[in-house]
Amino acid sequence: DGYDVVIHDECSANVTDKPYIDRILKAHRDGTPAVNLHCAMHSYRYGNFRAPVEIGADNAAWYEMLGVQSTGHGPKTPIDIIFEDQEHPITKGLKNWKTTNEELYNNIRIYSGTSVLVKGDQTTQPNKKELKKNPEAKPRKASAVVAWTNEYGPKKTRIFSTSLGHQNETVADDRYLDFVSRGVLWATGRLNN
């Protein structure tokens, strides 16, 4: 009670106690905005979370608040950051950029009501094992949503999330800090266009 926003930057993949998770989510169902960073996407997961979790399933509550279900990430290599919605108050005026080595989280499911703000493209070179097996192995390319907004629960609570932020270099980057700051301001209704 009394908080403007809750910032989830925890890495709690092994926390599976449903009443505990429900207590966390209650604040957001009751109208307290959330900002979710990086490993928060992989927190509070249990059951068969590697498959798309159905809406209303026992283990879907955390993903429904986030708006996206992710189960893992690729190697630590740079990600091209592409602002998909350049008119949203969070992204307006921000320019595409490239991270240092960073983790691209997959998207198993994007829930309805989620608004995609930013996508990430990542190219991974073949490793030694792959090259030994196939000397002609080509780089792999992956794309995923890396930042989005969601309206959660009966009060349509504002939720802002980004899966970026594994490396200290990313978190210290002024472009990342500006972007996340704007996400916090938007979530709390304090971002003017």
Core attributes:
193 residues; alpha+beta; seven-stranded mixed sheet; two-stranded antiparallel sheet; 5 helices; 22% helix
Q: Could you characterize the architecture of this molecule?
A:
The chain is of the alpha+beta class and 193 residues long. It is 22% helix and 24% strand. The protein is built from five helices and nine strands, in the order βαβαβββββαββαα. Helix 1 links the parallel strand 1 and strand 2. The longest helix is centred in the last third of the chain and has 14 residues. The radius of gyration is 17 Å and the shape is globular. The two termini are 28 Å apart. The mean pLDDT is 96.
Helical residue percent band: 10-25%
Number of discrete helical segments: 5
Q: Strands of the largest sheet, in order across it? A: 1-2-9-8-7-4-5
End-to-end C-alpha gap:
28 Å
Order of helices and strands: EHEHEEEEEHEEHH
Short description:
With 193 residues, the protein is α+β, with helices and mostly antiparallel strands. Helices cover 22% and strands 24% of the residues.
Show the helix and strand layout.
Layout lengths: L5 E3 L9 H12 L4 E4 L23 H6 L1 E2 L9 E5 L13 E2 L10 E2 L4 E10 L3 H6 L6 E13 L4 E6 L5 H5 L1 H14 L6
